[in-house]
Amino acid sequence: MVIHFLNLGYISPATGVYCKFWMYVEFTLDSESVLLAATISVQRHLLIFRQTAFRLRPQRYIYYYLPLLLSIIYPMIFYLVTVVFYPCDESQWNFTLNMCGDNACYLSNDLVLAALDWILNAGVPVCIIMPANVTIIIRVVRQKARRHQALPWAKQRRMTLQLLGISCLYLFTWIPTVVTNVMQHVHPSSGLYEIQENYISDLTYLICLLLPWLCLGLVPDFSKWLWKNFHRLQHPTNIIGTTVF
């Protein structure tokens, strides 16, 4: 939908139903992404240091499946109520801006609900991701030092770079968005709205572009495999043999 808008330069079809559908899909997927990242960052501590918590089936459902399921279902229900079913004035849509001006009715009509949405559904999960990933690195190093085990620094460096890379990606893309949106709803400003609409709101799309590559970096020897195949494409091997007619 974003690519379609950027290609045309305007919203098509220019209807409130399409705007609501676009906002519902984008808000839901964005919130699910950050909630899942925060949930997985916390669960990683249990997977590494409390593996016994997942041995029994009831514990697996409580500590593993249930949080992941809530991270997916909760945004779907929340934005179904606040975006789709919330009473809306059709005149507020701007069909010349991305996502119809990114101005859902509940964001402009209910400041408390809007602030809670940005803080609880985006701000708090983002603030959990960085400490959870940093502390897991510290716990791994401290545990090995306590047990007088040798630290495989190559693996430690790779894990540290990957976890910090994922954390910094969410911080870089979400913190400016959350801060400017909360400021905009507390004290509206046309200048801040233009900066937010033209620059800051597009930062979250970087997660879709960069996160898959960061996750692939977690796969052992993926970079070697990728470089090997890329090098093979750049320098194909000529095979000389006998042809029978």
From TrEMBL:
In its UniProt record, a GO molecular function of this protein is: G protein-coupled receptor activity
Residues annotated as domain G-protein coupled receptors family 1 profile: 1-215
Q: Which Pfam families match?
A: 7tm_1 (PF00001)
- SUPFAM superfamilies reported in the protein's UniProt record: Family A G protein-coupled receptor-like
Identify the GO cellular component terms for this protein. membrane
Keywords annotated in UniProt: Membrane, Transmembrane, Transmembrane helix
Tell me where it resides: Membrane
Q: Which domain of life is it from?
A: Eukaryota
What are the TM regions of this chain, as residue ranges?
62-86, 118-141, 161-183, 203-222
Q: What is its main location?
A: membrane
Protein name as it appears in the record? G-protein coupled receptors family 1 profile domain-containing protein
